[in-house]
Design a protein that fits this description.
Pfam families: TfoX_C (PF04994)
Shape: globular
Oligomer: single chain
Protein name: TfoX/Sxy family DNA transformation protein
Strand content: under 5%
Number of helices: 5
Radius of gyration: 12 Å
Largest sheet: none
Organism: Terrimonas rubra
Length: 92
């Protein structure tokens, strides 16, 4: 399978400001995001940008939705909970 090299802003849920922040932590493609995982990317973003509120739905869920090619609001509740649990576990 070929890696997905689409520019991040061409994916669902990721606009220019989110893409810029992702690029600042070394994520340029969906493949990069899949390797680091949405949970780890979210944690890295919150640490890199401590003064900026990074809402879970606009970042964590959006990143997972981008990988799945669905709008973040369509993520199953079970998956949303799993993502938040992963973040909470890794932050501790």
């Amino acid at each position: 399978m070929k890696p997905d090299i689409r520019h991040l802003t061409q994916t669902k849920n990721i606009g220019p400001s989110v893409a810029r922040r992702l690029q600042e932590i070394g994520i340029y493609t969906l493949t990069d995001l899949a390797v680091i995982t949405p949970a780890r990317a979210y944690i890295t973003l919150t640490r890199k940008f401590p003064g900026i509120k990074l809402p879970v739905n606009l970042y964590l869920y959006a990143l997972q939705g981008a990988l799945m090619d669905i709008h973040w609001s369509k993520l199953p509740k079970r998956l949303q909970k799993e993502l938040v649990d992963k973040v909470n576990k890794e932050i501790k």
